[in-house]
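Customer escalation, tier 2.

The customer says the design service returned an amino acid string that "doesn't look like it belongs to this structure." They asked us to rerun it and document both sides in this ticket. The original structure tokens are below, unchanged.
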């Protein structure tokens, strides 16, 4: 479904991605793990068209989307819940969800809203509350719900557990599992919480200073000594 081949992305003279290759098949959950500054968020932003690849290609369902505008990429069927949630704090929960529906069929709005409220009942309870007054966990639910309003085929999630309490992290990862299993949605997940991410994922990639250094099934990476030392036993990559 998604094919990233030889992608080099720069911030000025700094090369953040150095020839990255990533494949995501339809129906998979694929996770990308790595330390802060490894280039994980840059890869998602490159896929979304927010940051442009200087070299290499990004293809989605066989179509080259390298260099396309972000709104065009969303219409192709990719949505992202970005790092830091980035909800609209002055808008209500419902208004935030409406913003996510701008590129989808208006006739599907009520159905998509019900999907978001079923997945995250707390959003229904808070639908008239301003986004900025929600807890961190509720804001993350809102960010994911907003992304789902565009009915994507591929959902990109950037650090969905960041800064959340363990119980809320468990709820978020269960929601991701449901999105994949019940909605048959493909997911590319960027996470520092390698244990949760690899347990959930079909496959994973390890990104170190802009380069893929390891790949394998979630189980294989969980058992890999290098991954254990760097990400699962309190070590630092």
């Amino acid at each position: 479904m998604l094919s990233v081949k030889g992608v080099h992305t720069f911030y000025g003279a700094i090369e953040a991605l150095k020839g990255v290759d990533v494949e995501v098949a339809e129906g998979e959950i694929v996770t990308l793990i790595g330390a802060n500054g490894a280039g994980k968020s840059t890869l998602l932003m490159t896929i979304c068209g927010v940051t442009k690849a200087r070299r290499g290609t990004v293809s989605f369902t066989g179509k080259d989307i390298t260099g396309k505008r972000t709104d065009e990429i969303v219409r192709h069927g990719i949505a992202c819940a970005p790092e830091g949630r980035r909800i609209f704090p002055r808008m209500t929960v419902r208004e935030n969800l409406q913003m996510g529906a701008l590129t989808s069929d208006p006739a599907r709005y009520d159905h998509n809203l019900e999907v978001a409220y079923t997945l995250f009942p707390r959003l229904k309870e808070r639908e008239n509350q301003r986004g900025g007054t929600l807890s961190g966990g509720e804001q993350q639910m809102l960010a994911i719900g907003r992304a789902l309003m565009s009915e994507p085929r591929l959902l990109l999630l950037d650090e969905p557990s960041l800064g959340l309490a363990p119980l809320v992290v468990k709820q978020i990862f269960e929601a991701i599992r449901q999105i994949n299993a019940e909605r048959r949605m493909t997911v590319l997940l960027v996470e520092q919480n390698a244990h949760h991410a690899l347990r959930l994922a079909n496959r994973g990639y390890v990104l170190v200073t802009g380069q893929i250094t390891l790949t394998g099934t979630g189980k294989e990476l969980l058992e890999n000594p290098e991954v254990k030392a760097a990400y699962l036993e309190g070590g630092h990559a």
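Tier 2 assessment: The sequence is consistent with the input. The beta strands are 2-11, 14-24, 29-33, 53-60, 63-64, 78-81, 154-158, 186-191, 203-208, 211-217. Residues 1-77+152-163+177-237 form a domain with the Rossmann fold fold (CATH 3.40.50.300). Sent an explanation to the customer and offered a walkthrough call.
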